[in-house]
Each structure stands twice: as structure tokens, then as C-alpha cells.
Amino acid sequence: MLAKIWLDNARGVMDNIEATQMGNIRKAAEAMADTIEAGRWVHTFGCGHATIPVEEMYPRIGGFVGFHPMVELPLTFFTNIVGGMSVHQFVFLERVEGYGVEIMKGYNFDSRDCMWLFSHTGINAVNIDVALEARKRGMKVIVFGSAKEAEGKQTRHSCGKTIFDLADIIVDTCVPIQDASVPLKNHMDKIGPVSTMGFITAVWMTVTTVAEILAERGVKLYIHPSHNVSGDTTAKERLSDALAEYKKRIAGV
User: Which of 29, 46, 138, 139 is 20 to 30 A from 104 via CA?
Assistant: First the structure.
């Protein structure tokens, strides 16, 4: 059954992350914890399907204040396949050098911040622009993607580097470079991509580690509570507190 093949492949990615990336996840989490404890931001950015981990971690139930999603609408997940803001435009835009520089002009940054970037192959210009601009501003650059599989891939940026070359910390998502993982009878192309599973797995392993570090330091976290649990009379208040804290911090971003 192809469903079982995909499930085995997804489990394999998760197992490989556990087996090989725990140390790197800890390094990334420590850097992020330092940033959040200082009252600053872990900025998060990706293009296409690599915006899914950005949207997954914050804001949502079980997430907490400290992560700032930078979502550029023309580069996000597709609601239009053809027509306006569709696949053709996206594929073009993510390769346009200089676009990331313009995106960065829309925000204020601090050298205590982290820039957390998501890219499967690490070769497209927009992500590399953002990484270069983050480094100019003194931020730590943390990259999640298929680093080992992407070795030897030719960058599309004039700097000659991939996003992995520019990272201070890398967490390898352990996903095949092809991404799609299930062969299909009578077809050249595989189906069943696993990069999203790799990203989300690594994200929550990291974010929970950040929370663990900060809790051990005695830092109060502003967590988004579930507001659908019967009998929880303070959930609305805790959600309001989290949003108020975010609003207070974002005033400087």
C-alpha cells in the first residue's frame, strides 16, 4: 500500500532527526532562548511550502510569545494555482535577487534577534537575501532544511553561497532532496512529499526545547492556551495576556 510506504518514509525522517540532530536542535534552542529572554524576537521566514512551519509555530495553541512570523504574501502557500499570485509568479519571485532585501526593509531588527529560516534546498535568492541582511545586522542565522542532501547544489544567488553556507546553526531535516518519496506505477514522478513533516517535527522539537530552557531559567512564558476546554475559566484571560505581551513587544518591530 502506498499509504504505508509514505507513513514509513515520514517515520524514517522523524527517526533520523532524532538520531542525528538533537545536538543541533539544542544549540538552536539555546540561541533562541537567549533572544526571547532578552525581550527580543526570533524572526521566522520561508517561501512556498516552507512558510508552513512559520505559520504552524505562532500564533497557535501551545505556542508562546517570542516568535515573529515574517510572511510575504506572494511567497506563501498557494490558494491560487493559476491566475493572480499563482505558481508561475511564485517560482519566478523566489529566485529574484534583491527581493529579500526589500522585504527586510519593512521591519526593525536588533543584534540580539535571531533569524530562523526554512528552506529545503537552500539555493533560492530570496532566502539568501534575507540571510545576508540578517548577518549584516548582527543577528544569528538559524537554518532548517535538507542540508546534507543539498550539498553540491548550485546557488541561484550572485554571492555564490547557499543559505546553509550563511548559517550560524543548521538543523538538517533529513529529507531526500527530491522531497516526494513514493514511487507510482506508470509515472516518472514520485508522490508523497515529506519535507513538511520534517520541518514541523524539527520545529516543535526546537520550540519545546526553547520553552524547557526558559522555564528552567525562571522566565515567564506567555503561552496561547486552548480556549475550547470546558471548565477552564481563565483561558480567555491568559490569551489576552499573551496577545498584550505580543503587542507590547511588536511595538518595537
Answer: 29
Eight-state DSSP code of residue 242: H
What's residue 230's pLDDT? 86
DSSP symbols for 103-136: HHTTS---TT-EEEEE-SS---HHHHHHHHHHHH
Q: Count CB-CB contacts under 10 A for residue 61.
A: 13
Cα(190)–Cα(83) distance, rounded to whole angstroms? 26
Report the run of H or E that residue 145 belongs to, with start and end.
strand 140-145
The reported pTM is 0.95
CA 61, 67, 73, 77 torsion-angle sign: negative
Q: Which residues of the chain have pLDDT under 50?
A: none
- Give the domain CATH number at 225: 3.40.50.10490
Give the domain extent around 217: 2-250
Looking up cell 506572494 gives: 74
Annotate 121-132 with b (16+ C-beta within 10 A) or e (fewer). bbbbbbbbbbbb
* Per-residue pLDDT, 252: 65
Domain count, the chain: 1
What is d(CA 198, CA 192) in angstroms, rounded to the nearest whole number? 13
